[in-house]
Amino acid sequence: MQKQILHDDPRIGKLFSGDRNWSFVAVIVLWALYAFVFYEVKNYLGTPEVTWTLAAFGALVLLFNTAAILAMVAHLSEERSEIYGLDLHYVDLAKKKSRN
User: Fold this and answer.
1) What is the pLDDT of residues 2-55, one digit of tens each?
2) What angle is formed at CA 76 by the lines to CA 74 and CA 79, rounded to 5 degrees?
């Protein structure tokens, strides 16, 4: 019975939405930081080979980090009732305990 109540809890959607949005903000900030750092250091790199190597490996890091965050969001979407339901269960217990 408790699982059904938590499954229908509207707070789960709100928590997931917030986490998803902050994850996308983190990806955007990550890309912006990499672009800024690359722009600032490219004049000090010397040869074009070093510049291209740095760009290629930076792009790989961005690709893997972005893929990891997107995979995390997909997992949270699939398992949101279990993940957020457990959190909400303990939040509700703590509130109930603090009232008594």
Assistant:
1) 555 455 788 999 999 999 999 999 999 999 999 999 999 999 998 999 999 999
2) 110
